[in-house]
Amino acid sequence: MSAVATVSGTASVLRRLYFVRFGFAIVWALAMFTTASELGPLAVTLLVLYPLFDVAAAVVDARASRATGSPVLLYVNIAVSLVTAVAVAIAAASGIPAVLRVWGAWAIAAGLVQLVVGVTRRAMGGQWPMIISGGLSVVAGVTFVLGASMVDPTLFNAAGYAIPGGILFLVSAIRLGRRDR
Length: 181
Hints:
single chain, mainly alpha
């Protein structure tokens, strides 16, 4: 298989994955907004589900990316997101500030991975939205950690976190499709 065909195949898988990630992010954010005022069972479930979905997406991405580059950073993301899912479940017993600290640390780590992976895939095309999304995730993570110290922190910012990332996944999917044509 030629290098162009390999990159095109990877781009096609990523394009489909990015559309799925967009849909998941929007549905998740809407569900999270309905429960973000308290840390009830539904909110905890949604907060654990998001990094687990990130694990599944990173597995698909790593499989598709083996032929075009090293998936090591994606494996790092898988590990970080698995640890985060468990840590969020544990932190939920301590309240919203603890959850926001864990969520923020995850957003920083996952954002850095996404940023670096996007930079290494620039030649594939459609990666500028991923680079921007990674950078925004780092900034959002810092605000979650800082916001945990507020007098009455809520989960509304965590709910809103998924929307810009989802939109950037959509933009990247569209750009990858244009590249294929």
